[in-house]
Amino acid sequence: MSRDFSVEPDKQQMDLLAKQAAASLRTSIATTGLTPDIIALHNPAMQRPFAGLAPIVVSGHTHAPSLTFKDDTWWLNAGTTGGIAFGGAGGAQTAYSAAVLYYSKTVPHRLVAIDRIEVNGATRETSLKRTTIEADTAR
Question: Which of 39, 24, 49 is nearest to 74 (CA)?
Fold first, then answer.
């Protein structure tokens, strides 16, 4: 069984596909007037064309958790929820991680908080980081 995590798709092809998908989504938004609450992509290298199309864009692939706000969009990489062993790629220590998104109960629903959870099996450490989302950044 191969444990080679270095396989990367062609970056130009990936960029083209992302731009085409984002253009299709823009057309759908313009036609229906409906915007998605969340956009999910596997590879964060594909996310730039989706800026501003949803309050949050979630990705993975890198197994490196992160959260930033830029271009009117929250960018979340949930990290790894088990697709990689605790030993990590190349023997690096990797904690399992996940994110929980909280939306308001009132309609229209809006993103109000993000909890990021990490569990490191080797060190037996856990962490929880909450980010609250202000109404002006959540659309």
Answer: 39
